[in-house]
Each structure stands twice: as C-alpha cells, then as structure tokens.
Amino acid sequence: MRRPTLSVCILSLALCVSGGFQQGYIASVLNPPYVYIESFINETVTERFGVVMSDDLLSTVWSFLNVMFPIASIVGQFLAAWMCKRFGRKGTAIISSLLYLPGTILSSLSYPVRSFEMLFIGRFLWSLGNGINAVNTTVWIVECAPTEIRGTMGSMQEFSMAIGSLFVQTIGIPFNSATLWPWIFVPDVLLVIFSIVLFLFVPDSPVSILEREQDIVKARAVLARYYGISADAPEINRELNLERKRTEDKEREERPGILWIFNPFGQKEDRVRVIQQAAWLGVIVKIAYVFTGARALRAYSTFFLYDMAHFTLQGANLGSWIVAILRIPFGLIPVLFVDRLGRRFLMNVSMVITVVALAAIMVGILVGDSLQILSACSFGAVMLVNAAGLGSVSRFYAAELVPRSLLIGTTSILAGIEAVTKIAVEFAWFPVANIIGVYSMLMFLVPSLVFLVVIWAMCPETSNRSVFEVLEDIARRKKLKVSFT
C-alpha cells in the first residue's frame, strides 16, 4: 500500500475532527443526560404556561429534538453542492465548521437562561454544519486520496465518529446531573478551533482548483503533493486527462439536470442505465445502514437499556459507555482492512450479524430480565458490527459508484435521501417503542433481511478499482455491452 503523504495525513485528521467526530458528538450528546434534559424541558414549559406536559407529548418533543440532527443535515447536504462549487472544498470546510460554534454555545446556555428553544436552535446550527461537512468530506477524499488508501481514509470517518461518541459519553459521566449537563457541550469549542487551524495547512482539492480557477499548473502541483509524486508523473497526467474528459462528459450527462441519475423512467441508453443502477445501489447501501437500527439505538441507548432491557439508570449509562469504548477497536477494523478484505465482505458479514443480533434482542426482552445479558450483548453487537462493516463502508461506497463529473451533486442527493430516511426512522421509533415495546424492533429486523439479500446479490466490489471498472462490472452483471474505460 502507498505510504500516505503529510498533506493527506493532515487532511484526513482535519476531516475526521470536523466530520466524523462531530457527527458522533452530535448523535450522542443528548444521550447521557436525557432524563435531566427531558425534566428541564418540562420545567420550563410549566414555568411559562403553568401546565405539565404529558408523557406522550414529552416523548414526541424529545424525539423532535433528536431528529433536529438529520433535519438540519438535509438542509446542509443540499447546500453543500452549491458551496463546494462556490467556495471550494477548503472554504466550505472552514465555513461549515464555524457553524459548530454558535450551535454548541447556544446549547450550553439554554439551561442558565431557561430557554429550551435554544437547544433546538443550537442543535439545528450544529447539525447544519455537519450536514455540509458530510458531503464535502466524501467529495474531498475521493478527489485527493490515492486509490490504494481511499477506503482507509473513508473508514477513518466512522472511526472518528466512534471516538466522538466515546468522548461525549465519557465527559457525560461527571456532567450527568440536573445542573451540570449543559457543560457537556462546551469542550467541542476547542476541537472545532483545532480542526479549522488544520484546514489552513492543506491545499484545496485539485478538482476544485480546476473548477474555480482553471489553473492546470496549480492543480497538477496540488495533486502531486497529495499523491507524493512528481508533478510530471504519468499518474498525474492520467488523472488530469480524466478530469478534462469528465468535464466534457458532464456537459452531456448533466444537461437534463442531475436528477436524471435517479429517474428510472427517463433514460433508455445502456450507458445511462448502468450509471443509474450504480447510483441506486448507493442509495440502498445508505438506507440499509439506517434500517440496521444502529443509529437509532445509539441515539437512544440509555433509553433502550433502561426502559426496555430494565437495567438501572446507572447501569444503562455504564453500558452505553462500554459500547462506546468497544466501538474504537471495532472501528479500526475497516481502517486497517477495508482495502484488503474489500467492501462487499465487510458489508455482507455485518448485515448477517445484524439480523441475528436484532432477533436475539427481541428474544431476550420477550423472555424477561433473566435474559438481560443477551439483550445487552445483542444491542452491543448491532453497534459494533456496523462500526466495523456497513456503517463504515456506507460513508464512501456510494461515491465510488458514480463518475466524478457527477460526484458532488450525486453525493449531496444521496446524503439527503439518507437523512430523510433517518428522520422517519428515528422520529418514529422512540414513540413507537414507548407504546409497543420490543415489537418496535421489527422496524429494523424486517428491512434488514430484505437489504441483506439485495446487497449480497447486487453490490459490486469497489476496492482498488476505478469507478469506470466498477461501472463495467455492473454492465456485465446486467449483460449490457457498454465500455467506460
């Protein structure tokens, strides 16, 4: 494997801190003190209006606060396509990271000023920045990372998300009280500043330079810096020649608008049909991860272990913390092996284990407290196996299926589709779980069985292959005589 250059290492660290780490922080920050935040919301409503919220209404409000993350992410993901072209990859990363600061500050000030609305506004701004960064990070990695380490850099996002989740679960222990919980947001300010400083030391993407400045000499030098080779190396020439070809292709392929790629009825040309199937496979992989339940269960882990598995509140928080610790070594698996074992292997294995673990969760809870350990271990299995498999691969797999001329628009749309699905699942699951209990797990088990079959049968291997080789593989599976290389 090619040794990564200093520029690639700094870029990867900056993208991890501003992207995956922030996502893990946002996704988990409400989890440790959720009992106290619910109480705070209820108290402020009572202080203002003299009424006490019902349990059902409070559950709905709490679900809405949680799904502010994917709601704001959708806005950010669609803004990202315009921002990447207007400000470049580097400018977009810095601007979106700056949005984290008012987000965390408003959230931390909500308690002392007795305004639960500030929690919603702060979470929206924080999540908006992360939505922009989610698209920008994927695009920047694909455009700058050598093929041999692209999977490793993509997997680092899931690994850094596990670190972010562990970090917030850990600091949540001393701050887990009725008065100290607002401090759980504050440490993120220093990390945001650190990531912005890192971005100052890396160049923009060479593709962005060509788009915005049309400076081919500068683009060659930047690409050579990321690859660690001479600016006149044949590899640089091949990449830049491809970029010129992609610019020409873009005018032809995007003429009706980027949405044609997701329209199964509007195009009949074989070449277009192959690209469309590749894009839809990217959609399937992203949605499949949402329906594993890993994200929803992580967001409500304390609730699951406390209310559904009947552990004590202290035990539930401890269990969430232990799983967060274990996600670190599990998250390293794709970082170290995704380019060796391949994307398909990790996705298929994690999906099989997820289906078994979800079934075991239902069995453990239905039998009762005598099988508490089975429920807890199966819950952990869903979290950990997806950190090592589908959850990690889904971050970048879709971006390896479409030509780079379509990369920004497609990545933005894919991320938006994933976020919409996430909103529907996470917003629905918590109230449903409060009503029907363990049977709410069927929301994850049944779709996971379906997606397991589809991914196993249809998803191509992308490891150490160019997008054009992947598209030709899909064409062969469809028995179409189409050439991309």
From TrEMBL:
As given in the record, the signal peptide range reads: 1-19
The family database entries (PROSITE patterns) matched by this protein are listed as: MFS
> Which keywords fit this entry according to its UniProt record?
Membrane, Signal, Transmembrane, Transmembrane helix
Q: Which Gene3D superfamilies match?
A: MFS general substrate transporter like domains
Question: What compartments host this protein?
Answer: Membrane
According to UniProt, the name of this protein is: Major facilitator superfamily (MFS) profile domain-containing protein
Q: Does the keyword DNA damage apply?
A: no
Domain named Major facilitator superfamily (MFS) profile is located at 12-463
* A Gene Ontology cellular-component term: membrane
